[in-house]
Specification:
This protein has seven helices and ten strands. It is an alpha/beta fold and about 240 residues long. α1 packs across α2. Bound molecules: 2-phosphoglycolic acid. The site of 2-phosphoglycolic acid has 7 residues, from loops.
Length: about 240
């Protein structure tokens, strides 16, 4: 696992966008795995700027998002489909039908998860997976205790995650209690992975990841051969690269 520490969130976003852009330039039909959350917004902003300046083409790119609340309508402003449309997809030329988010409105969650795995396989697998991390070390919605070989599945969110995400809702009671998420095994199948860890409230998660703490779901990344951790000084206090 490679560790890169930058002074600021902006520099982490710059570096992440540069890695994603280089991947797309090298392989125009790249399959990207993408996260939601506050952390990747700066990265998405920079990718949009690259596209707008004519330096990046998403026409042949396919995307698979990590997770989605369940149940939720794709039109709901709290849905991750809505988030991705607003923060990236509507601002670049990726064809909408090449963007995939787990189907939060599916009647049969298990069938929707199996179909998601099949779609990823048929697309040739994820070339570059971008990850954020929860303060409890979750990646996607894989909370502590998730099996390392898990595939896309329905989960019950932990109270910690519900509390962390409630900042984006009017009231904590509005936060969905379930989600569909790529499993840890799904994530590990990506050919290359970058994980963005910024802010003081992620210090503990970063330490747990770097020490391979089994209570931290992100620690499964220690077993992958091409992972780069991009973090800022606020998250990396006391850590040396
Ligand atoms: P954040 O979320 O980027 O909003 O901190 C990350 C996560 O919970 O996975």
């Amino acid at each position: 696992m490679k560790l890169e520490i930058y002074d600021t969130y902006e520099e982490v976003s710059e570096r992440a966008a540069a890695i994603i852009a280089a991947q797309i330039r090298e392989k125009p039909d790249t399959v990207l795995g993408l996260p939601t959350g506050e952390t990747p917004i700066g990265t998405y902003d920079r990718l949009i700027r690259e596209y707008e300046s004519g330096k990046l083409d998403f026409l042949h790119v396919t995307t698979f998002n990590l997770d989605e609340y369940y149940p939720i309508s794709p039109c709901d402003v709290q849905s991750y489909r809505y988030f991705m449309n607003q923060h990236l997809f509507l601002h670049v030329n990726v064809p909408m039908d090449a963007t995939h988010v787990p189907e939060g409105s599916a009647e049969d969650a298990d069938a929707a998860c199996a179909a998601y795995e099949k779609a990823m396989r048929e697309a040739g697998g994820v070339d570059l997976q971008v990850l954020g991390i929860g303060r409890n070390g979750h990646i996607g919605f894989n909370e502590p205790g998730t099996a390392p070989d898990s595939l896309t599945h329905k989960v019950t969110l932990t109270q910690d995650t519900i509390e962390a995400n409630s900042r984006l809702f009017n009231h904590i009671s509005e936060v969905p209690t379930h989600a569909l998420t790529m499993g840890l095994g799904t994530i590990l199948r990506a050919k290359k992975i970058i994980i963005l860890i910024t802010g003081k409230n992620k210090q503990n998660a970063l330490r747990q990841l770097l020490s391979g703490d089994a209570d931290c779901p992100a620690s499964v990344l220690c077993g992958h051969s091409d992972v780069t951790v991009l973090c800022d000084r606020a998250a990396a206090e006391g850590v040396t690269a």
